[in-house]
Amino acid sequence: MGITSKAIQIETHGGPEVMKLMTLDVPEPADNEVQIRQKAVGLNFIDIYFRTGLYASPLPHGLGFEASGVVEAVGKNVAHLKAGDRVAYGQSPLGAYAEVRNVPGHQVVKIPDGISFEEAAAVMLKGLTVQYLFRQTYRLQEGETILLHAAAGGVGLIACQWAKALGVKLIGTVSSPEKADIARAHGAWATINYTNENVVERVLELTNGKKVPVVYDGVGKDTWEISLDCLQPRGLMVSYGNASGPVTGVNLGVLATKGSLYVTRPSLGAHVNTLEKMQAAADELFQMITSKKIKVQIDQRYPLEEVAEAHIALASRKTTGATVLTLD
């Protein structure tokens, strides 16, 4: 016997107004699924990409990839969870904007004591993103200096803290003095306000002309060229998002002329595609939080029915830290 759940669905691509609050039937969990009554849902820029159609998925569909809650029921093949467990996930099929939903069991992990539902929902996708960027894509070493764009955003503030904990000097780009203050308060070694400073020149100054071995760029087309120009010879450009739009028309010869550079376009899903990989990444993330090396900053909270306002705020670059949808 299934149950019903309020959930956000879109039937067409477009602005925030295309998100509709609907009541959906939720069936019993399948053999490999977990049914979760959700407490909080994390918002991310990728949700906007799917709403607008930049990233395509067959319509109609839900939105959202990360949330936390309590297990209602488990399918017969799920051995690591049981009803009543406090859980979270950061990489699921579309549809996290919902009160109750079924999620593949291998994507769901228990939340340790001391981490709240809101913190878990706010940190899973963003925190696991920082984990794979800093610990897997390019494994940062103490003493290195790196460049990360959008340092005051949801991913950025976790990255600033994680870099500091590793003994890494993070140079973060920001769009205002206020965001610079926030990034530095969270552990950024230096900040560059790209609205009135030349990023490449400042990186040269801050590194005594050496540039950086790796750039983490979640912005996309607006920063592509800048990022390449900040890299040392044989440096790595990590393009992990498109907040300003996708990078297109790339001439690979540019990588040669700028110093035999490397470029990668990684995704979280490829790094946590089994329960073992997800658990290992989540364990490291949770340990950073419970040891107080990372503090989860949630600066915006909205009820599910106000999701349009949440998307408008996120897209306008007016948010700092994480944004969550709260569910009773």
Question: Could you please describe the fold and organization of this structure?
Answer:
With about 325 residues, the protein is an alpha/beta fold. The protein has two domains: about 5-125 and about 275-325, Alpha-Beta Complex (Quinone Oxidoreductase, Chain A, domain 1), CATH 3.90.180.10; about 140-265, NAD(P)-binding Rossmann-like Domain (Rossmann fold). It is about 30% helix and about 30% strand. It is built from ten helices and 16 strands. The protein has helices spanning about 45-50, 115-135, 155-165, 175-185, 200-205, 225-230, 255, 270, 275-290, 305-315; strands at about 5-10, 20-25, 35-40, 60, 65-75, 85-90, 100-105, 110, 145-150, 170-175, 190-195, 210-215, 230-240, 260-265, 300-305, 320-325. Strands 3, 5, 6, 7, 8, 15 and 16 form a seven-stranded mixed beta sheet that branches. Helix 6 (about 225-230) links the parallel strand 12 (about 210-215) and strand 13 (about 230-240). This is Quinone oxidoreductase.
Summed up, what is this model?
By secondary structure, this protein is of the alpha/beta class. It has helices at about 45-50, 115-135, 155-165, 175-185, 200-205, 225-230, 255, 270, 275-290, 305-315; strands at about 5-10, 20-25, 35-40, 60, 65-75, 85-90, 100-105, 110, 145-150, 170-175, 190-195, 210-215, 230-240, 260-265, 300-305, 320-325.
